[in-house]
Amino acid sequence: MAKRGGFPGGMPGNMNNLMKQAQRMQRQMEESQKEMETKEFTAASGGGAVEVTVTGVKEIVKVKLTEEVVDPEDIEMLEDLIAAAANEALRKVDEANAEVMNKMTGGLGLGGGLPF
Fold first, then answer.
1. Which of 1, 7, 11, 42 has the fewest beta carbons closer than 10 A?
2. Which residues have a Cβ under 8 Å from the Cβ of 111 and sit 6 or more positions away?
3. 68, 49 contact by CB (below 8 A)
4. Is 52 exposed, middle or buried (0-12, 13-18, 19+ CB in 10 A)?
5. Which of 106, 100, 102 lies closest to 39 in space, CA to CA?
6. What is the DSSP letter of 47?
């Protein structure tokens, strides 16, 4: 006699419960995405001489430089410091996104690198 309420092949579960879970996860992802849009992440380089702030959607919103770091004789160093601070701020965004996905998937690693 065939089992009721399962998937072909004997997978346990109820399709309605799976759909509800998927919808709940989708709502959580949307809420997390909206929350990330309002967050800002700041990183510094050069001992605080350069500071870059990005949003949770990876847009640079602020670059702060100390007067001492602006040396017309060494533009390359300033460029490197800005790039380093920006990259670190973007890494912070990625870490926050990964943390959100980890919480939603219960640490199963189902995020697959999906961006928010």
1. 1
2. 98, 101, 102, 104, 105
3. yes
4. buried
5. 100
6. T
